[in-house]
Amino acid sequence: MEKQTYSRRFFLTTTSLLATFAFIPESVKSFYSNVKKLVIRPKENLRILVTINKKKYTVNADTRTTLLDLVREQLELTGTKKGCDHGQCGACTVHVDGQRVLSCLTLAAMVQDKNVTTIEGLADGDKLHPMQQAFIECDGFQCGYCTPGQIMSAVACVNEGHTGSVEEIKEFMSGNLCRCGAYNGIVASIQKVAR
Amino acid sequence: MRPFTFNKPSSVNQALSGKKETVQYIAGGTNLLDLMKKHISVPDTLLDVTTLLSDKVQPAPGGIRIGAMVRNSAAASHPDIRSGFPLLAKAILAGASPQIRNMASMGGNLLQRTRCPYFYDITLPCNKRKPGSGCAAKDGENRMSAVIGYSENCVAVHPSDLCIALAALDASVIVTGKDQKTIAIPFKDFHRLPGSTPEKDNNLPENAIITSIDIPANAFHKNYAYVKVRDRDSYAFALVSVAAALQLEGSMIREARLASGGVAHKPWRWYEAEQFLKGKEATPATFSQAADIVTKEIKPLPNNGFKLPMLKGAVEVALQNCLTA
């Protein structure tokens, strides 16, 4: 068998290639971060003044923050629930200036200087809001996940005067889904408060 | 969502001069934020126009003017709209949910994107989302898709309910451009058919903003109906919908309006059926003939043949309901 030898050329090519490879991670990293800066915009923060449940807050938040994420993640008001995050289930319903809206499709930046009420703001100390009491008495929930949204929507439904009939209540509560199917209890709760 | 800059321009002019392709206006946000969360819309700047545009419903010469920022629920409950244009109020209340109607603006409703499932799935081709990528709906799941006016490139439908009433009532879209020039676009010309450019939903000029919607006074406030057929009773997009309005003289039809949603890329007016109804007796037989005229133009896709009898029934019911409105 012929004895294997390594040429001078082989030595130079392999060592120089190895040296190049050794440096690549750094150059790739900096190249990547440059490209990233060019292609992906850095996040931006905003100062937002908002009144939630009659308490004034000043928060610094990413422009992308929804009202839902603001109350849950930054203000730790976790009563408001994230169901679908796409405006299809109503679990995130809150009131802005007295009107029921979906907090998942509301930018925190757009409630600047507005009055927000979440489920935490309904009760008067230890005294439950009549709608909260009615939900307990009429079995308006099972698992309870959709309940804060249902109650916020139900309070608005009564305030708007859409409680003339079971059909009207159902129509004006259609933006709040309940996977447990507690709908009959929810309708009964609303009728009870409306009376 | 991708990061973006949030600005609140102080005038319409400032909003217009800040508009570029990568800049989006935001009003109600009910459609835009959803699209941004799914990376279908990736603006680098949002301009909040909520305080720039009118949120008033006002009498206008020869009709009524609805500011672009009037929320859907406010329009539906406005006394002038309820008395003079109840078809519009009815169509508004047939759409979305109370929460969404409280948020969504009248101007924004005109600009909402289709709900075609392929438009929303960024892993699949869609000419409307990515021009040239193909239409997956054409040979795919198309039971919600168009039955008229579609093209090889797009079979999506316009999802709005209130636009169907605005089309029936011959509204105009009032648009202001950068030079403060205001133009009125007839509603029938505002939305487009897909043709070879399905990425364009409407004819809103570049660098222009909807400032209001005008509806001419009419005598359709007595005999009108909006019939919406959908997969569930409430809070669902239309399979087919029909806005109908009649002007009666005794039992004779003086004037008729008929428009549909859930059938095309734009709110669809049935002009031939309207012409047919003119001068006829308002009877079930007449309505049935009008429905036949409507459905003779329909060309269903493989999965939405059911829309043909459904539309025929909806037209008949809507016209019949006009008599008892």
Q: Can you offer a commentary on this structure?
A:
The complex is a heterodimer of chains A (195) and B (325). Chain A is 42% helix and 14% strand. Chain A is α+β, with helices and mostly antiparallel strands and 195 residues long. Chain A folds into three domains: 1-42; 43-121, Roll (Ubiquitin-like (UB roll)); 123-195, Orthogonal Bundle (DNA polymerase, domain 1), CATH 1.10.150. Chain B is α+β, with helices and mostly antiparallel strands. Among the domains of chain B are: 5-49, Uridine Diphospho-n-acetylenolpyruvylglucosamine Reductase, domain 2 (2-Layer Sandwich); 223-322, Enolase-like, domain 1 (2-Layer Sandwich), CATH 3.30.390. In chain B, strands 4-5-8-6-7 form a five-stranded antiparallel sheet. Chains A and B meet through β4, α4 and α5 of A and α2 and α6 of B.
State the main characteristics.
heterodimer; A: about 200 residues; alpha+beta; Ubiquitin-like (UB roll); DNA polymerase, domain 1; 3 domains; five-stranded mixed β-sheet; elongated; B: about 325 residues; Uridine Diphospho-n-acetylenolpyruvylglucosamine Reductase, domain 2; Enolase-like, domain 1; five-stranded antiparallel β-sheet; four-stranded antiparallel β-sheet; 13 helices; globular
Summarize the structure in short.
Chain A is α+β, with helices and mostly antiparallel strands and 195 residues long. Chain A has three domains: 1-42; 43-121, Ubiquitin-like (UB roll); 123-195, DNA polymerase, domain 1 (Orthogonal Bundle).
How many E-type strands of chain B? Answer: 12
Order of helices and strands of chain B: EHEHEEEHHHHHHHEEHEEEEEHHH
In the CATH hierarchy, the architecture of the largest domain in chain A is Roll
Q: Would you identify the CATH H-level superfamily of the domain at 223-322 in chain B? A: CO dehydrogenase flavoprotein, C-terminal domain
* Low-confidence residue ranges of chain A: none
Question: How does the helix and strand content of chain A classify structurally?
Answer: alpha+beta
Q: What is the radius of gyration of chain B?
A: 19 Å
Proportion of strand residues of chain A:
5-15%
The largest chain-to-chain contact, stated as pair and per-chain residue counts, equals:
A-B, 35 and 27 residues
Give a short account of the largest sheet of chain A.
5 strands, mixed
Strand numbers in spatial order across the main sheet of chain B? 4-5-8-6-7
For the record, what CATH class of the largest domain in chain A applies? Alpha Beta
